[in-house]
């Protein structure tokens, strides 16, 4: 067993039990889970918490589909989220190799990765870009004023991204919680 595996095991249990796909832990709670004190660098540098395969601590969460989405050094807390990955395979035709579309979804947005026999492509989209595309492609869904959507489409996300969101039924502004 690797040094940081207890943290990965804890996160895996949270997700597999259907408890949560987002976890906020204090450094002290992580130390309790691990059974040892974190190194000083964890308390001093955000880079210690980076989602890098070259860091053994990061491998404990990355290998099970989690990633750090925020770190607060002052508050001594970290938020991790489970990344949803969807694989869509196209079956082989005429002996050709199949192509695969992988979609990774997290709190920051999503990534599309298309791979096949002769090519590989990857694109990353933030949630703000997705919302803007929805607004651009479906203006009829949002009423006459583009800056003031009047439909129950991602109200919290829109509000957090700075859009004015109006409740269609009451006409009142919707505020992010």
Explained architecture:
With 177 residues, the chain is of the alpha+beta class. It has three domains: 5-82, no CATH class; 84-125; 138-174, no CATH class. Helix content is 28%, strand content 29%. It has six helices and nine strands; from the N terminus they run αβαααββββββααββ. Strand 2 and strand 3 (77-82) form a beta hairpin. The two termini are 41 Å apart. Residues 145-153 have low confidence and may be disordered.
Strand order across the largest sheet: 4-5-6-7
Order of helices and strands: HEHHHEEEEEEHHEE
- Tally of separate helices: 6
The N- and C-terminal alpha carbons lie at a distance of 41 Å
Write the layout of secondary structure elements.
Blueprint: H1 5-16, E1 22-26, H2 27-34, H3 40-44, H4 56-62, E2 66-72, E3 77-82, E4 84-90, E5 99-106, E6 109-115, E7 120-126, H5 127-137, H6 155-160, E8 165-166, E9 173-174
Short summary:
With 177 residues, the chain is α+β, with helices and mostly antiparallel strands. Helix content is 28%, strand content 29%. It has 3 domains: 5-82, no CATH class; 84-125; 138-174, no CATH class.
């Amino acid at each position: 067993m690797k040094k940081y595996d207890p943290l990965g095991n804890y996160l895996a249990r949270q997700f597999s039990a259907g408890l949560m796909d987002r976890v906020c832990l204090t450094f002290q709670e992580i130390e309790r889970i691990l059974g040892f004190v974190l190194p000083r660098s964890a308390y001093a540098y955000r880079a210690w918490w980076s989602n890098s395969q070259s860091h053994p601590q990061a491998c404990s969460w990355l290998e099970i589909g989690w990633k750090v989405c925020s770190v607060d050094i002052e508050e001594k807390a970290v938020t991790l989220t489970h990344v949803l990955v969807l694989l869509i395979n196209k079956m082989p035709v005429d002996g050709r190799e199949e192509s695969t579309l992988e979609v990774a979804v997290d709190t920051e947005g999503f990534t599309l990765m298309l791979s096949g026999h002769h090519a590989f492509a990857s694109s990353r989209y933030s949630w703000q870009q997705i919302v803007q595309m929805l607004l651009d492609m479906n203006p009829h869904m949002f009423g006459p004023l583009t800056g003031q959507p009047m439909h129950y489409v991602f109200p919290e996300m829109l509000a957090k991204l700075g859009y004015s969101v109006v409740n269609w039924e009451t006409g009142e502004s919707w505020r992010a919680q």
